[in-house]
Amino acid sequence: MSLVPMSEVLIRARRGGYAVGAFEVWNLESIQAVVGAAEGLAQPVILQVGPGEADYAGLEDIAHAAIFHARRAKVPVVLHLDHGDTFERVMRCINHGFTSVMLDVSHLPYAENVAATKEVARAAHACGVSVEGEMDRIGGGEAGADVTDDDAHLTNPDQAVEFVRETGIDAFAVAIGTVHGFYKGEPNIRLGLLEKIAARVPIPLVLHGGSGTPDTDVRRAVEIGIAKVNICTEFVAAFADTFASEHDEQDFRYNVPGVFVKPRAAARKLVEKKIRLFAGL
Ligand SMILES: [Zn+2]
To answer: Is the pTM value of this prediction over 0.70?
Structure first.
């Protein structure tokens, strides 16, 4: 139990035909919401921190809080760097106890992406840390940049095989039409393409842009081979929307439980709903 490398939970998930939820955390309440939900359902979970959350909370601060809760948890918990922007940030995360990292240099030409990801995999594996890699750009906001539909590419299954083999990554992020943030139009998830990728790539597959993706598509994607689903926007929205709207005047008498209890409970409920969906409960 407690803090584990990502490979440990994802290999089991892909074999077992279920997926583990990965939720963006930025403070104590968000960590409590995620770990509390996972413990309540007796399921593994992934706490993830992107550059934005790390810069907001302070990398050391958020790492300490997450690791404390992970170690105490009654279920396996992973601490993952989501969309790491530089080699240095990846190294800082490993140094602060993250058990999984991702370097997102999918905006670079293919050969440079392979070289940089391979370097990260070598360093991380030497420290017992898992690595997620991304070959194609995923639509919506990514690593602080807006990826237009023209820039977002769908994963080529043959190239995915080569990318995974050359880099030595443990988990592969697919580009099959999901977007970061909420969808602007109707989602068009290419499940046929995912089948082709899953047939060729045996390592756990990761679905980015899980927020707002229809439940039926997510279920089917998990059956095909998705072992990790990232949820950021919907989780933040559960917290923020509740914070903004669902309080009565009494709650805002400037006392701490009054203001923060409802947002945390709403965030936890969202995590429970997603874990049930991913695990097929
Ligand atoms: Zn992502």
So the answer is: yes
